[in-house]
Amino acid sequence: MIDPDRFRELIQKRIDVLLPSREKNNKRTNSVELDQTRVGRLSRMDAMQMQQMELALSRRQQTELIGLKRALSRLDSGEYGECEECGEEIDPRRLEIDPIATLCISCAQRKET
């Protein structure tokens, strides 16, 4: 059996860490300067590569935030910790590692194959 208060706190802490990090990343994904007189071609290419890495990180963080908000919603409805596939309880140790997990290990493994 899971402790809803404990998992709510765990999820909220993760949200509190992600939000400021996302805001910082969004500021770093502004357009790359194309003026070659100010920045060399290789420096601009490095900047563009860094920008793409920041965009990918921002997308991953957004996906995680959506999952965390869904997890809070499942907590509110009493469905948190219940496998969406088979209805069995998800091992609390799995939820501690991945609080947005919606499948038990058995169903997750079946889905991968």
Please give the largest β-sheet: none
Structural shape: elongated
Q: Low-confidence segments, ≥5 residues, pLDDT <50?
A: none
SSE ordering: HHHH
Please state the CA-atom Rg, rounded to the nearest Å: 19 Å
How many E strands?
A: 0
Tell me what portion of residues adopts beta-strand conformation.
Answer: under 5%
| Average pLDDT metric | 86
Instruction: Give the end-to-end Cα distance, rounded to a whole number of Å.
Output: 28 Å
Task: Give me the oligomer status.
Answer: single chain
The helical percent reads 55-70%
Helix tally?
A: 4
Q: Would you tell me the structural class of the helices and strands?
A: mainly alpha
Please, could you describe this protein's structure?
With 113 residues, the protein is an all-alpha fold. The protein has a domain at 4-80. Helix content is 66%, strand content 0%. It has helices at 4-27, 41-77, 92-97, 105-112. Helix 1 (4-27) packs antiparallel against helix 2.
